[in-house]
UniProtKB/TrEMBL annotation:
One of its GO terms (cellular component) is ATP-binding cassette (ABC) transporter complex. Keywords: Amino-acid transport, Cell membrane, Membrane, Transmembrane, Transmembrane helix, Transport. SUPFAM superfamilies: MetI-like. The gene is ehuD. This is Ectoine/hydroxyectoine ABC transporter permease subunit EhuD. The keyword Transmembrane helix applies. GO terms for molecular function: transmembrane transporter activity.
Amino acid sequence: MIWDWAFAASIVPSLLDGLWVTVQVTLVGTAIALLLGLGVAVVRYSRIPLLGKLFDFFVLFVRGTPLLVQAYFAFYVLPNVGVQFSPLVTGIIVIGINYSAYTAEVYRAGIQSVPAGQWEASTALSLSAVQRWRFVVLPQAVRDVVPALGNYVVQMFKDSAILSAITVFELLSHATSIGSGSYRYLEPLTIAGLLFLAVSLPAAKLIKRLELRLAHPR
C-alpha cells in the first residue's frame, strides 16, 4: 500500500474531531482521578474506621481488574440496574475512577514522605485536622509526587483509546472507522499515532518543567 497524500489530507478533520474527544476524556478524567484519589489517600492515611477499610478494598479491586473489564461492566451491566449514561460520560467516569486508585497510592507515598517534625509542629501550633492537611501536609506531599501524577496524566491520554470498546468515538475509533470504510488503514492509523505523539510529548515536557519548578531547593 502506497501513501496517498490527498486521502490523508481529507481525513485529518475527522481525526481532529476524534482527538478533541480524547482530550476531553483526559482532562475531565484527570480531574476526577486527582480529586478522588486525594480523598481516598487522606481517608486511608487517617485510618477512619470502616471507611478506611472500604477504601483499601476499593484501591485493591480497581488496581486488580483491567480497565477494559471495568468499562464493559459500566456500559453493559449497570444499565440493567438503572445506572446509565452516554458512552462518553461512562468512559470518562470509568477512566477517572480507575486512575484514582493509582493516584491514591501516589498521594499516599507523598504523605508518608512528609517529615514527622512537620506533623508534630502542626500539633504544637494547635492546628485543626483540616488546617494541618491543607496548609502543612498536602502542599509538601503533592510537590513531591508531581512527576508520578504527571506520568499518569500522559498514560490516561493514551489509555483513552480503550474506551473505543464501549463506542466512545475518540481518536482511535475515528481512525479504525475510516480504515474499515475505505479499506485503507495506513493513513488513518499513522496520522492517529502522530496526533497522540503530538499531544503526549509536549505534555511530558510541560510536566517536566513543572517538576523542576516545584523541586525542593538544594
